[in-house]
Amino acid sequence: MVGCDTQLEPEDEVAKECLMQPIPGVLQPLEVGNYWLLDLWDEFGEIARSDRHEITGSFISREDDSKVYFVKERNPPSDVKEILINTEVGLHSAGLIVGSDTVMAELVTWPYPSEVGEPFIKRLVMDDGNGGNIIGDFEFPYEVVSTGFSTVTSVKTYQTYVYEARSTTHPAFDHPLVEEFYHFAPGIGLVATNYRALTSDFPSSNWPTFRLREYCLMQ
Q1: What CATH number did the domain enclosing 33 receive?
Q2: 206-216 per-position pLDDT tens digit
Q3: Structural domain tally of the chain?
Q4: Does any domain span residue 94?
Q5: pLDDT confidence bin for 15, thresholds 50/70/90
Q6: What b-and-e string marks burial along 129-157, b requiring 16 or more CB atoms within 10 Å of the CB?
Q7: Which domain covers residue 123, as residue numbers?
Q8: What's the pLDDT score for residue 65?
Q9: 189: in domain
């Protein structure tokens, strides 16, 4: 989990525009004001809802003075913030802040640039919210399965990196055996997710999926 000063620092007052244009060199651009609107397509092929993921603020890490950005999911303002930072080896998720306490960390670096077949690990660490006592620590294997996949979203097709998680029953939440796929368009960010069951008990041809409808990056 990241040690941080939770007070948001003021942003430099530099006039920027929010544009639907990719930013080269990173998997997902991080700048206050960036947002991604993803549609949840249900099992009937209809849009059930749309979630806005937005970069809403930044703070300085006590460990290395790097800027780390909050992402408020499911339409800000929200009590849940994901901590993200771009590194030389990819996009790093350093955990979640729920309210004023970090109570769960989803630690993963999405490798970028990368090659097909590269393995990596996602850690899920949970504490009890009372003094940081760890109540769960799990690891999940991931792999880069494509660096040039044509991913169809709500409005267009993107060339993407696809990351796959193939896991047994989820030890924390007792999920069925599934494969999870995360589609990132370099310079834009996450554009789709989809799932596939590994057992016949859970048919997956019509499982709900998220697909990008629009995005805006401050430039």
Answers
A1: 2.40.360
A2: 567 999 999 99
A3: 1
A4: yes
A5: confident
A6: eeeeeeeeeeebebebbbbebebebbeee
A7: 29-218
A8: 73
A9: yes
Would 15 be classed as within a structural domain? Answer: no
What confidence tens digit (pLDDT) does each residue in 41-76 have? Answer: 987 889 999 999 999 888 887 777 766 777 777 777
Report the alpha-carbon distance of residue 209 to residue 155 in Å, rounded: 14
Instruction: Give 110-169 pLDDT, tens digit per residue.
Output: 999 999 999 999 888 776 666 566 667 788 889 999 999 999 999 999 999 999 987 655
Cα end-to-end distance, the chain, whole Å: 30
**Domain contains 214:** yes
Residues 188 and 28 sit within 8 Å (Cβ to Cβ): yes
Distance, in Å, from the CA atom of 22 to the CA atom of 218, rounded to the nearest integer, reads 10
CA distance 81 to 169: 26
